[in-house]
From TrEMBL:
Keywords: Membrane, Transmembrane, Transmembrane helix. The chain crosses the membrane at residues 12-31, 37-55, 67-100. This is Uncharacterized protein. It comes from the Bacteria.
């Protein structure tokens, strides 16, 4: 099931990795650009392939990487024409297109969530309710908080350090500290949430999927041989 999803997005990832560099090569050759400039789109392609191989099981990271590659390829494609005019436009267009294609690929792999994802090597993110950009990320060997206020500090805990994971109900809006991350806090809105016991305290993340997260973490702890 999950393997089939990953196969379905191979074309998407190949598109965002190779289309921009191919346009760069065509631009250099078609507009009589300086031939050594061909090294730039080739380098972008090599970097792109390496990037996506490294994060092939981390779909939440695909859109940003694709946007960066697209923007770089747009600059390379526009340089042989009218660099001061074409480069910014091409960078924006290819960057946005790369983001869109990769985001579609991300959705194919992660949505809808099914229990089979727990047995796969895919990193599974869960969007926090009411906390824009904040995600609880469950990997194969650790869980972490990402996005939102955690752009520079990303608290992560190995599965071996994770204690109980359970769904709870939050009665009122509250801003709670994140243990071990200084002054960083999470705003919890009324409704269901997941409470995760971690050293040196607990994370409480607002989400309607606490039971699914608990089962996902339990299954991955079992697969990792963690009690």
């Amino acid at each position: 099931m999950v393997a089939a999803r990953l196969r379905r997005v191979r074309g998407h990832l190949a598109l965002v990795t190779l289309l921009g560099p191919l346009l760069g090569v065509a631009s250099v050759l078609g507009f009589g650009g300086w031939l050594p400039l061909l090294a730039v789109p080739v380098l972008i392609a090599v970097v792109g392939v390496g990037w996506f191989r490294a994060i092939r099981f981390r779909p939440r990271r695909w859109p940003l990487r694709a946007a960066v590659l697209g923007a770089a390829a747009g600059i390379a494609a526009g340089a042989p024409v009218l660099p001061w005019v074409v480069c910014p436009v091409a960078a924006v267009v290819l960057g946005a297109a790369g983001w869109w294609v990769a985001d579609k690929a991300r959705a194919v792999v992660l949505e809808p969530y099914t229990p089979e994802l727990a047995d796969s090597p895919v990193e599974v993110p869960w969007q926090a309710r009411g906390a824009r950009g904040l995600e609880l990320v469950v990997g194969t060997d650790r869980i972490s908080l990402a996005g939102g206020r955690f752009k520079t500090v990303r608290p992560a805990v190995a599965l071996s350090g994770v204690g109980s994971v359970e769904q709870v109900m939050v009665a009122r809006r509250a801003t709670l500290p994140v243990p071990g991350v200084g002054e960083v806090r999470v705003t919890v809105t009324p409704g269901p949430a997941v409470r995760i016991t971690v050293p040196p305290g607990e994370w409480i993340v607002p989400t309607d999927h606490g039971r699914e997260i608990a089962r996902l973490v339990a299954r991955r702890k079992a697969l990792a041989g963690v009690d």
